[in-house]
Amino acid sequence: MTGVAAAAESDWTIEETETDSTLHDVVSANAGRFAVGGGGVLTVRTAEGWRTLRDGGPTGNGNNLYGASVTDDGERVWFVGASGAIGEYVPATDTLVDRSAPMDNTNNYNSVAVTGDAGEANVYVAGDSGKIYYSFENGAAGTWDYVTPGSGSALPAIDFHGPRSGHAIDTNGRVFATDDGVTWNAIGIEDANVTFYGLDSDAPDDVDVSGGNGTVLTYDGANWTPDALGDADLVDVETDGDAGYVVGSGGVVQELTADDRFVLDTPTGENLNAVDVDGDAVVVGDSGMILRR
């Protein structure tokens, strides 16, 4: 990527929603797109717009939800949030299973990664305590353990590309890798000098991290390549090969290609918190903002 800013035409549209809560994450499942956010809201995209499925989160206490993930077969949606909130949603039966407070831990959880199929998933949860809580038995009570990959700094994001292989980032400028879901090793990043927010783990040699000051860092298995464009905090990144998007503060969306990054015009100035690409691209953000391209 060259880092040259080029104005690109875009056709983002604002989607109708039933919530004005901040939306923190969006994912694709077999039953459609799902987003989670403030007050424990869970919303799904329908032909008539986005419909609120739950308010209050898995415990009903209204804890904010910050991260979401989907099983490999697309049948279950998992999400995590404040005060130890962990939920497993079954779209087929409109059932919400409360998996909160593993090992009686009620720290804030920022991100979740699930691998495997519905009912037998590996579940990995990262949060402000600097610990990764994991269960290889679908989050059942008594099956959780935890590991602290770094110095205890908060972990804003975790993402997996295989059943027990993935990456995590912390707020101390470190990226960690695992190939067994238990043992984590630091793989950089030296002298990044920005705060990390977003992570996309596609392979051991295909990792992207987004952060402050318009920064995206790309790992090829040996080296990290930084690229900066603008001054926005880039909160989330999603790529497929050389193509993808990063989103962030002030309505910023940038498109990534093999050769460049393009700033896309968007019809909002709201902070944007997550992007999901499944055919079309959907971005969610503050005040219930949802954009689709």
Defining key terms:
about 290 residues; five-stranded mixed sheet; mainly beta; Methylamine Dehydrogenase, Chain H; about 50% strand; about 0% helix
How would you characterize the overall build of this protein?
- There is one protein chain.
- The protein is an all-beta fold.
- The protein has one domain (13-292): YVTN repeat-like/Quinoprotein amine dehydrogenase (Methylamine Dehydrogenase, Chain H), CATH 2.130.10.10.
- 0% of the residues lie in helices and 49% in strands.
- The chain contains no helices and 29 strands.
- The strands form seven sheets. Strands 1-26-25-24-23 form a five-stranded mixed sheet, with no helix packed on it.
- The two termini are 22 Å apart.
- Residues 1-7 have low confidence and may be disordered.
Describe what is shown at a glance.
By secondary structure, this protein is mostly beta strands. The protein has no helices and 29 strands. It has a five-stranded mixed beta sheet, with no helix packed on it.
